[in-house]
Every structure is written in C-alpha cells, then in structure tokens.
Design goal:
Adenine-n6-DNA-methyltransferase TaqI, Chain A, domain 2, four-stranded antiparallel beta sheet, alpha+beta, 435 residues
C-alpha cells in the first residue's frame, strides 16, 4: 500500500487532556449514580484493572473529560519509574474519566487515527522518551511538553487505519480471552460460595427441594446442619484451620543462584481481585533473595492484604519475599484452599489483624489460624476436579495471550517505523491462524 509519510510531533496531531482532582467526599464506592474514575494504579501494561475502581457523580464530569473509544490513557505521575508512563487504549465504548495523576491522549481525527496513535504510544521508542524525560524523587512525573514533543513518522490516514486494524485484531483477541477468563473465574467463585459458604445444597436438601446438582454430586451433601464453634455447619463436616489443608513453601533462593531467564513475579505483577496471574518478567538483575515457586502454586501478597492480591501461578519461577507461596497438603483440598484464601471473609480477617500502619502486612501464622468448615474428602475432591478443569483452561488462555502479545509487540515497531508493510504483516497473521 503506497503511502505518503511525514514526520510530526505528537502535539501536532493530538492533545493531552489532564485528569481532574476530585475531593474524597465526592468519590463513590459503586457505579450507582456515577461513572468510573481511572487512577494511575488502574493502568496496567496495555489494559485497565478496574477491580478497585472508584466512581464520580456524573454531574461533576464535563463532556470533554469523559473518555471516548480509542482514547489512550496514561499515568502522568507515579511513585515508581516503571509505573509512570504506563498506558492503555480504550478499545470499546466505555463511560469513564481520569484522575489527577493521569492524562488522555486524544488525536484530531482529521489528522490521525486515534487507534493508530494508541499503538504509536505503545512503541518502545515512545517508552524511551518517557524514561528519558520522567523526573522527580519520591514521585516521578511526566510533563505535557515532553510528552507532546515526541517525534514520529505518520503515514496517510488510510494506512494508519490498515496498520491499526492488524494490531487491533490481535488486541481484540487478547481482550476476548480476558473476558472469557473473567467468566471462568466468576463461575469458580460462585460454585465455591454456593457449596462452602452459603451451603446451598445442604439447605435445599434440608427443605426438601431439588439441589439443582447432578444426582451423584447432590448425594455427597448431608441434609441437615449442626452447631459448631464457628456457627452452623453441615452435619458430618469438621471445623479446622487453613493449617489443616495447606503448607507454606519457603524455598529461599539466593540472588546469585537465580537464573536470568527465570520467571519473576513481584507484587507489581499481581492484579487485585483476580486469580489470573498473567504477568511476569525475567529475573535478570534481581539483587536480593527470593522465594521459589512452581506452576500450580498459590501466591498471596501479604503486604496490604486488603488489596486482594491472590492468584494461581501458571509458570514456575521466583517471587518477592512479600508474597506467601502455599500449596495444599493433599490435592483433594486444592479447590477448598484456593476458594478460601481468595474469599472476602478470609481477606477481611487478615486485614483486621495486619500489623503496621503505613504498610500493614499479614503473615503465614495469621493465614493458617483462619477457621473453616472442612467437608468430607469426597466433596473436596469433586470441587478440586472442577477447579482443576477451570485452572487448565485459564492456563491455556494465559499462554495464548502471551503468544498474541509477543506477536503484536514484534509487529508493532516494524509497522510503525515502516520496516514492515501492511500486506506482509497480514501474511504473518494468516500464517499464525489469526484473522
């Protein structure tokens, strides 16, 4: 595809809309009567993590501040050099706005494709500009001038759209996989809540109602309750502690023994409120001791436990010592353990007992003290079988998304720079089975 290419500054074709500082008294905890407020912590590498989103009354948000499809949101300030400049593009119509430490890159549609500019902002060259110009000590900041002074090649609008379509095909597939993962996780949480928190099958049988479960599973549950030190529990279940079903893994690895290509998971890689640990980096350059974990282990962020950083490891590697590594004592308890350590009741109990003011943290001792109703082995085993099926599907999605992300990251700089032409990129996608 022939194209006229010009060299422009970002400020020639786009504006930077700075976020607004809202009063704490104006913020809402749910969507009722408001729209989502993006903060710098909600911006991950290439996507938005809305697990702890706050909301602003709609009347306080001007039309120009409301996000539009293909807007690129960027963290303008952060306590971390790695986090400042993180950005994500809105690929769907979504109502939201950004807070004081964020900005929105919004192109003039007559000059540039918003979707294309989003990919320009995801390029390594743009990241280099951020790393060069971010300044500060405790807080790193980006200025409007430095951001808009980024210089790059701009092809014609038709070619911009063609390039954005190729890269967008990959991103849309990644997002579809994320949504499928969220659905699978919601199914697992709902199942656990029903069986082991509300005891729905037992209540149904006690009332003479159909449990809605297959006959072989329904038969595993009793039809009555009995009193215990933690309240009413199904008859025949015993009261125990997390220590009865789980063990902490404390394999310490010295920094000099860590291979540079080992997978590394730090708290910064763990999103809030989801079991899907889809991000990790290489351990190259780590200077302190870490903990070893293996694929299938459960990782729990003990710093600020109310952040709900709990998930399944889909790779073997090393992790921060601020992360507890645990695994079930018996495989039959894998589902029960995962269900409880990610449940709000468990998180709340740890948060209330956490020590420290500015950086409260919990401990394995506090975790193991949590009391729960432990069912007969047959019920635990059935839950674990179902959870294992979901875990394998989630692991497959993680692997596929990492491959898709790698393909996008390979194509992006070559397409943006003009090194690779659109027809060639289309053939690469077709050979990879992506269309």
């Amino acid at each position: 595809m022939a194209s006229e290419v010009t060299t422009v500054f970002l400020g020639d074709v786009a504006e930077l809309i700075r976020g607004v500082s809202y009063r704490p008294a104006d913020l809402l905890d749910d969507v009722s009567g408001g729209i989502a407020l993006l903060r710098a912590t909600n911006i991950r590498d290439g996507y938005l993590d809305l697990s702890d989103a706050l909301y602003v009354p709609s009347r306080l948000v001007s039309d120009s501040q409301k996000l539009q499809r293909f807007d690129t949101v960027i963290a303008m300030s952060s306590g971390s050099r790695k986090a400042v400049g993180r950005l994500a593009q809105l690929r769907t119509d979504w109502t939201g706005c950004v807070g004081a430490f964020c900005g929105v890159i919004r192109p003039n549609p007559k000059k540039a494709s918003a979707e294309y500019i989003g990919y320009v902002a995801q390029s390594s060259a743009f990241r280099d500009q951020i790393d060069t110009h971010a300044n500060g000590t405790a807080i790193m900041n980006l200025s409007r001038e430095n951001l808009l002074s980024y210089r790059f090649l701009l092809p014609s609008l038709p070619e911009q759209r063609a390039i954005a379509h190729i890269l967008g095909t990959l991103d849309d597939k990644i997002e579809l996989n994320r949504q499928m993962s969220a659905t699978l996780e919601a199914m697992a949480r709902a199942l656990f809540e029903s069986w082991f928190v509300r005891f729905d099958p037992v209540r149904a049988k006690a009332a003479g109602r159909d449990t809605g479960l297959p006959a072989d599973i329904a038969a595993l549950f009793p039809d009555s309750f009995e009193e215990s030190e933690i309240g009413e529990v199904p008859k025949g279940w015993r009261v125990g502690r997390i220590a009865d079903i789980a063990a902490q893994v404390t394999e310490v690895v010295r920094s000099e023994d860590i291979a540079s290509d080992d997978a590394y998971i730090g708290l910064e890689h763990m999103p809030r409120g989801t079991l899907l640990l889809a991000e990790w980096s290489h351990a190259d350059g780590l200077e302190s001791h870490k903990h070893r974990f293996r694929e299938g282990d459960y990782l729990f962020g003990k710093l600020r436990p109310y952040f709900k950083k709990v998930g399944i490891a889909f790779v073997s590697g090393v992790c921060s010592t601020d992360i507890v590594v645990c695994r079930p004592l018996q495989q039959e308890h894998a589902g029960l353990l995962l269900g409880w350590i990610s449940h709000d009741r468990f998180i709340d109990s740890l948060s209330s007992a956490a020590t420290g003011t500015r950086m409260p943290r919990t401990s394995w001792a506090e975790m193991t003290a949590f009391r729960l109703a432990i069912p007969p082995q047959a019920i635990s085993a059935r839950l674990s079988e179902l959870f294992e099926t979901i875990r394998r599907r989630l692991g497959s999605v993680v692997a596929q998304n990492r491959n898709l992300s790698a393909a996008r990251d390979t194509l992006l700089p070559k397409l943006i720079s003009g090194e690779l032409r659109v027809p060639d990129a289309e053939r690469v996608l077709a050979s990879a089975g992506v269309s």
